[in-house]
Amino acid sequence: MTYCVGLCLREGLVLLADTRTNAGVDHISTFSKLYTAVAPGDRAIGMLSAGNLAVTQSVWNRLQEGVLLEGAPHTLLTVHSMFRAAQLVGAAIRATYQADGPAMQAQGVAFDVSIILGGQIAGGPPRLYLIYAAGNFIEATPDTPYLQIGEHKYGKPILDRALTWDTPLTDALKLALVSMDSTLRSNLTVGMPLDLMVIRTDGLRVALQRRITEEDAYFRGIREGWSAALREAYRALPPPDWPLD
């Protein structure tokens, strides 16, 4: 299992993923689930993946080599809009299914993949998409400015309560990290280190890309500070006035 979250806000995008892959309790490995396609001044795109690792790696390799879109081969560095980029990823997923799906089905292996694609291409706004195993997709909006894949239920409440389209990028980064920490604490199939990417609106470059480990002082402070704040918050709530026998 995994947890990936993408935020699309007025000031830009935040993409965050864990790195744990799990093929059983005794077979745990670390693989990056963040892929990037960047041409400074023209585009900055990040892709987060969840699902079967062989499938997601095959999809990424196809995207690097070129995928047919309306009769012509394209990569994430050649499409002219983020909408086209999402279509291209969908086409890469379908091509992978055509090549590997029947053999996987014969072996009883599910074709399991979901992808968050976020970025900005010159001439268009920042956009964030969730692309499904069928190759179709949805887009984040100002009303719902985040998307999640993988083990998302533990990290969702903080985003629902605190995140808005106008949340400053630095505050959004904190919320993404708290969302991830909540998942790390509640699900052993999600694990460190973390991969982080931040893209500022109209920057057309990567504002921040970082591998966050257990030794990262800032993330450790976020984890400890959030736990302390939660304990203080519930203690400050008034006790119930219902009679207890």
Kindly describe this structure.
It is a single chain. The protein is of the alpha+beta class and 245 residues long. The protein has one domain (3-236): Glutamine Phosphoribosylpyrophosphate, subunit 1, domain 1, CATH 3.60.20.10. The chain has five helices and 14 strands. The strands form four sheets. A five-stranded antiparallel β-sheet has the order 12-1-2-13-14, covered by helices on one side. Strands 5-6-9-10-11 form a five-stranded antiparallel β-sheet. A two-stranded antiparallel ribbon has the order 3-4. α1 crosses α2 (82-106), α3 (156-162) runs antiparallel to α4 and α4 (169-186) packs across α5 (217-236). The mean pLDDT is 96.
Overview in brief:
With 245 residues, the chain is α+β, with helices and mostly antiparallel strands.
Helix share, percent? 25-40%
Q: Helix/strand/pairing class, anyone?
A: alpha+beta
Shape: globular
The CATH superfamily appears as Aminohydrolase, N-terminal nucleophile (Ntn) domain
CATH class: Alpha Beta
- How many strands, what sense, and barrel or not for the largest sheet? 5 strands, antiparallel
Low-confidence stretches: none
Oligomeric state of this protein = single chain
CATH topology: Glutamine Phosphoribosylpyrophosphate, subunit 1, domain 1
Helix-strand blueprint:
Layout: E1 3-9, E2 12-18, E3 20-22, E4 28-30, E5 34-39, E6 43-51, H1 53-65, E7 67-69, E8 72-74, H2 82-106, E9 113-121, E10 127-131, E11 137-139, E12 146-150, H3 156-162, H4 169-186, E13 194-200, E14 208-212, H5 217-236
Antiparallel strand pairs: 1-2, 1-12, 2-13, 3-4, 5-6, 6-9, 7-8, 9-10, 10-11, 13-14
Helix pairs in contact: 1-2, 3-4, 4-5
